[in-house]
C-alpha cells in the first residue's frame, strides 16, 4: 500500500497493525504510548511554545522524520510562527539573527543530543545552554529533546506517513 490511513487490521497473534503492515504502536502498547504522552506534556511545562516547536522541528529534520516535521511545522504555523523562521530552522547558524540567544542555545543542544553518538554533547554546547536557561528550564529542554527523539523513532519505525495526523 502507498498510504497509511491508520486503519487497523489484525496482525499475527492479535497485534494491531496499520494498513502499511507495520505495528500500530498506540494500540499495541497503550500504556507505553500514554506514558510517552505524559512525558512529552511534562517536558513542555514552563517552556515557550515557539521554542518547543523549534526544538521538535530541528530534531525531526536531523532524524529525517517527515511525519513529525509535517506535524510540528503545522503546529508552529497555527501558533503564529513565521514562514521565514520555519524555513531557516535547518540552517539556523547561517541565519542567527532570526533566532534569540535562548533559541540558538536550544537548537545547538538539540543537535548535540539528537546526534549524541557522533561525539557526545560538547561542553561548550552544554555550557551555552546552561548560561541561558535556569536548571529547571534546562531540564525541561533536555526532556523535550528526548521526547521528540523518541517520537521520531516511533514514527520512523512504524512507517508513519506525513500528512496523516489530521493537522493538515
Explain what this protein looks like in three dimensions.
With 168 residues, the protein is mainly alpha-helical. It has helices at residues 25-28, 30-44, 49-62, 66-78, 83-88, 101-114, 123-132, 135-157, and strands at residues 8-10, 16-18. The chain is built from eight helices and two strands. The protein has a two-stranded antiparallel sheet with strand order 1-2. Helix 6 (101-114) runs antiparallel to helix 7. The longest helix is centred in the last third of the chain and has 23 residues, at 135-157. The two termini are 21 Å apart.
Please give a quick description of this structure.
This protein is mainly alpha-helical and 168 residues long. The protein contains eight helices and two strands.
Write the layout of secondary structure elements.
Blueprint: E1 8-10, E2 16-18, H1 25-28, H2 30-44, H3 49-62, H4 66-78, H5 83-88, H6 101-114, H7 123-132, H8 135-157
Antiparallel strand pairs: 1-2
Helix pairs in contact: 2-8, 3-4, 3-6, 3-8, 6-7, 6-8
Average predicted confidence as pLDDT: 89
So what's the overall shape? globular
Helix percentage: 55-70%
Largest sheet: 2 strands, antiparallel
What Rg is obtained from the alpha carbons, in whole angstroms?
17 Å
Placed side by side, the strands forming the largest sheet appear as 1-2
Amino acid at each position: 500500500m502507498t498510504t497509511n490511513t491508520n486503519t487497523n487490521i489484525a496482525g499475527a497473534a492479535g497485534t494491531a497493525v496499520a494498513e502499511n503492515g507495520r505495528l500500530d504502536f498506540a494500540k499495541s502498547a497503550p500504556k507505553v504510548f500514554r506514558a510517552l504522552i505524559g512525558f512529552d506534556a511534562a517536558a513542555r511545562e514552563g517552556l515557550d511554545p515557539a521554542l518547543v516547536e523549534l526544538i521538535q522541528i530541528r530534531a525531526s529534520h536531523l532524524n529525517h522524520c517527515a511525519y513529525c516535521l509535517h506535524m510540528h511545522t503545522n503546529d508552529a504555523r497555527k501558533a503564529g510562527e513565521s514562514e521565514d523562521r520555519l524555513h531557516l530552522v535547518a540552517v539556523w547558524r547561517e541565519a542567527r539573527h532570526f533566532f534569540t540567544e535562548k533559541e540558538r542555545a536550544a537548537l545547538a543542544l538539540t543537535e548535540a543530543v539528537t546526534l549524541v553518538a557522533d561525539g557526545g554533547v560538547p561542553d561548550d554546547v552544554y555550557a551555552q545552554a546552561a548560561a541561558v536557561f535556569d536548571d529547571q528550564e534546562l531540564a525541561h529542554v533536555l526532556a523535550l529533546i528526548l521526547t521528540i527523539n523518541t517520537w521520531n523513532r516511533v514514527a520512523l519505525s512504524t512507517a508513519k506517513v506525513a500528512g496523516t495526523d489530521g493537522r493538515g
